[in-house]
Amino acid sequence: MGETTIERAAKATPPKLARRIRGLSDRAIAWIFVAPTIFLLLAVNIFPLIWTIRLSFTNFRANRPNAEVKWIGLRNYERILTDSDIWLTMQATAHFLFWTIVLQVLLGFALAWFINQKFRGSNFWTTVIVLPMMLSPAVVGNFWTFLYQPQIGLFNYSVAFLTGADPTSFSMIGDTGLAPWAIVIVDTWMWTPFVMLICLAGLRSIPDSIYEAAECDRASKWRQFWTITVPMVLPFLMLAVLFRGIENFKMFDLVVQLTGGGPGNITTLTSIDLKREAFEKWRTGYSSAYAIILFVTVFGLASIYVKALNRVKER
Amino acid sequence: MSAYSVTAPSRRQQWIAGVLVALYAVITLLPLLWIFTTGFKSPSDAIAYPPKLAFEPTLEGYVNLFTTQTRQTEAYLAENPPESWYEEMVHAKGMVIAGPSRFGERFLNSVIIGFGSTFLSVFLGTLAAYAFSRYRVPLKDDLLFFILSTRMMPPIAVAIPIFLMFRSLGLSDTHAGMILLYTAVNLSLSVWLLKGFMDEIPREYEEAALIDGYTRFQAFRKVVLPQAATGIAATAIFCLIFAWNEYAFAVLLTSGTAQTAPPFIPTIIGVGGQDWPAVAAGATLFLLPVMVFTILLRKHLLRGITFGAVRK
């Protein structure tokens, strides 16, 4: 192809004139456009982070702004890492993370696989399934406490109806054995569609020609599933797990409204514990250190995971 | 799909898949349906055993949601006959309406903060995305990664210094403070989504406009913006839904004037325990706009959700 009109015109126009025609220089426009975003993110994200790091070495308490603030070095970190209660909240978080991810991956992948059979009305049902993840976790979580009520709750009634058990014999959010599962169920209800959508994108990215070739080689459907579908969706699935993992590590609103961390401390996830330390006990310095530890944990785990993800993608 | 395709699922397969998906969808919809119907139940129907599917609909939950009520003596009620259907409903319980509840205010706060922060984050996001998409910005990749990484911080961890910062700047419990905060939280998503949309607009259009004597800025406004309109709208909906649903910052940083609906709705309490029909009524009004948006704009929204995965 020859030169386009644009290229010819660009060459014909002397650079100085061109700049005058365009008003500001490209560089200036780029900076004017980007600067407000960077500034706001620095002010509301980075500056607070640095402040948190500084506070984490002090004994500052936000409810006593006039008290003397002492620099206590690594004492806060030391106390957190040797506190057995914190390990209990970590266990609660791990239980929550593990089971929500397992259930959401299994259900989400199955749903995506079924939807990808392109039956009539699949778009309509996809939209219906996606609804829960769009809603406010706090408002919905609060209403689930009603569904979980023994006797009058719809959840207990349905379980009783299906299994024949007495609906008043169990309380999903009042029983220490059941409460960890109560939060897993609601989170799975809410976020399975997210995993499903990402799996669906993965399934749709597989070209038909691969299956056609496999069909020519007389590979069984079962074999096609394990040697084509699963490996090709895996990077997508791993990405969905990453997003869910980060989100659920930060989990606060849904669980606070559902169980408030109880009964006892059985569903006190790290974010809920952190909120108590920071905004109920007002141990600001201590909770800053706590926040930094959580932050480093998420970043560390996420970056190890991303490395693994990239290795899978390269294969 | 051709009739001879070897890879197309069989009729029977499609049928089974359809039934299973529909079954899941119906189960998943039940809690939402329950919120909707509970809003129209009387308090005794709401806590009936077994749970009632058929009931006489009433607006009592909605009346309780929007008003505060106090108990009054028979004599007082007889002296002050009800003037409207809702007063009559309240009088029947031996109560009078003392005034409007705070739900209206809280809902309005959600609207103001939601739309305010959405406008700002889309406005700033559009500018930044355009620059990242079209110009050689120094340290572009680092800046883009920095913008994305701000999304990974747990809200409670950021909330501690923000709480202190807002307190010293006088921004705590103000609309401006919350708008600023939600804008910052949404900006990363907004920049990344919009950059994707802008990358897809052919540069030739703008170049042609520049040759026609438009300045860069005019070309951006009159050529790029109209082309990116759908993408901007989809991004706006995402930002709006986030700000609308946000709870952690709202519950920590607002208590009165600027409190949004999510921290408020769970605190609706009736006489003797939580007033579930009123809570359900509030939840219905609050969740419905998002559901409608989701259904109307499903294509763009679904694209936005899978965005991170599809774009490698």
Description:
The complex is a heterodimer of chains A (315) and B (312). Chain A is built from 14 helices and no strands. Chain A is mostly helical and 315 residues long. Chain A has two domains: 51 residues, no CATH class; 239 residues, Orthogonal Bundle (MetI-like fold). The longest helix of chain A is centred in the N-terminal third of the chain and has 32 residues. Chain A is globular, with a radius of gyration of 27 Å. Chain A starts with a helix and ends with a helix. The relative contact order of chain A is 0.12. The mean pLDDT of chain A is 86. Chain B is mainly α and 312 residues long. Among the domains of chain B are: 44 residues, no CATH class; 164 residues, Orthogonal Bundle (MetI-like fold). In chain B, 69% of the residues lie in helices and 5% in strands. Chain B has a two-stranded antiparallel sheet with strand order 1-2. Chain B has a two-stranded antiparallel sheet with strand order 3-4. In chain B, helix 6 runs parallel beside helix 9. The relative contact order of chain B is 0.12. At the A-B interface, helix 1, helix 3, helix 5, helix 6 and helix 7 of A face helix 1, helix 6, helix 7, helix 8 and helix 9 of B.
Strand runs of chain A, count:
0
CATH architecture field of the largest domain in chain A? Orthogonal Bundle
Tell me which oligomeric state these chains represent. heterodimer
| Portion of residues within helices of chain A | over 70%
Would you count the extended β strands of chain B for me? Answer: 4
Average predicted confidence as pLDDT of chain A: 86
Q: SSE string of chain B, helix = H, strand = E?
A: HHHEHHEHHHHHHHHHEEHH
Strand content of chain A: under 5%
Characteristic key phrases:
heterodimer, A: 315 residues, mainly alpha, MetI-like fold, 2 domains, 14 helices, 0% strand, globular, B: 312 residues, two-stranded antiparallel ribbon, 69% helix, disordered C terminus
